[in-house]
Amino acid sequence: MIIITRPGVTDEELDHIRERIEALGPRTHLIRGEHRTVVLCIGDQQDLVNVPMLSIPGVEAVRPVMKPYKLASRQGHEESSEVQIGDSTIGGNALSIIAGPCSVEGLSMLQETARHVKAAGATALRGGAFKPRSSPYAFDGLGEEGLKILSDVRAETGLPVVTEVMDTRQVDLVAEYADVLQIGARNMQNFSLLTEVGRLHRPILLKRGMSAKVTDLLLAAEYIMKQGNMNVLLCERGIRTFEDSTRNTFDLAAIPVLKKETHLPVVADPSHAAGRRDLVPALSYAAIAAGADGLIVEVHPNPEMAVSDGDQSLVFDEFDSLMAGLAPFAEAAGRTL
Ligand code: PEP
Ligand code: MN
Question: pTM above 0.90?
Fold first, then answer.
């Protein structure tokens, strides 16, 4: 960490800054420039995270030299990580396509969807059994019955299943059934939940919060990894902006930024980003071109009757077209489908 002092800082202030830092462990080194003096802090930067640096007299600004997300960062872990999901991996050359309904509504609709998306090339099945809903009166999922349906459909199709966990009290239950546990956008900074899923060895699909910066997403991943679970997938699903022609604003640039910053696989969710099915193919292609390792896409046998997110769910034919349309983009990005 580099501490930049204000112009005209006194020797007493410099001594005090150095004493404060050194009392916590790190060593310091002064660099006196023509206009400014900076204090270089050498040692474990974690010792300094709780220090309100700007409150120390003479300090003007602080610049970290190491990323605050040590485990998620590419600094010191240059090679991209691959995460095992069922029989396949995500983060390698082959793209992962996770598809399925927003909510598990029943056995037959999930079976039908799973058979279809599998035939079209999907590598995993999504479906929410516990649903976070903006309105407390909206359908909030089938709960454990939904988890059983997911596991029955996995047994039939062989597709690994991705489903959301919303609460620390549900972690063990959801982990009994799910191959990948999703942490939704609304829970990205539920630190107790992140810590709890960090104790599992199961992959976690961590979705970016609606108002979260990329750094916030990486720090949320760090909470999980700090507990020992390195199997984290990051998901860009759109953020809230002033733009209202789409449900969220798809932050395409976050994908290459994440690929630079972290070794973890990155997935894009064009469905929640767009909120409307007609935009899903374009956003999917763009995400793959930008370097995403996979997609998570909502597909429903009859979106008109869907209990959640019908407007953004693709019908089967549209999913087939999406997969066909994806092929040249995958090839151009040097990936396989
Ligand atoms: C979902 O995947 O259905 C969902 C609720 O996503 P998000 O948390 O991104 O809104
Ligand atoms: Mn949804």
Answer: yes
Q: Is residue 228 helix, strand or coil?
A: coil
- Output the CA 120–ligand 2 centroid distance in Å: 21
Mutate to test the pocket of ligand 1, among 165, 237, 249, 280 (most ligand atoms within 8 A of CB): 237
Please name the residue whose Cα sits nearest to atom 6 of ligand 1. Answer: 184
Closest by CA position to 48, among listed 29, 67, 24: 24
Q: What is the residue with the minimal CA distance to atom 9 of ligand 1?
A: 185
- Alpha-carbon distance of 277 to 309, in angstroms, equals 10
Residue nearest to atom 10 of ligand 1 (CA): 185
Q: Ligand 2 centre from 309 Cα, in Å?
A: 5
In this structure, the dihedral spanned by the alpha carbons of residues 273, 278, 280 and 283, taken in order and rounded to 10 degrees, is -80
Q: Count CA atoms closer than 13 A to 169's CA, side-chain side.
A: 3
Mutate to test the pocket of ligand 1, among 130, 134, 161, 182 (most ligand atoms within 8 A of CB): 182
Residue tagged 């050498």 (tokens): 42
Helix axes 107-120 and 316-332, enclosed angle (nearest 10): 30
Written as tens digits, the pLDDT of the chain (337 aa) is: 899 999 999 999 999 999 999 999 999 999 898 889 999 998 888 888 888 999 999 999 999 888 889 999 999 899 999 999 999 999 999 999 999 999 999 999 999 999 999 999 999 999 999 999 999 999 999 999 999 999 999 999 999 999 999 999 999 999 999 999 999 999 999 999 999 999 999 999 999 999 999 999 999 999 999 999 999 999 999 999 999 999 999 999 999 999 999 999 999 999 999 999 999 999 999 999 999 999 999 999 999 999 999 999 999 999 999 999 999 999 999 999 9
Domains (range + CATH), the chain: 2-63 (3.30.70.1140), 83-332 (3.20.20.70)
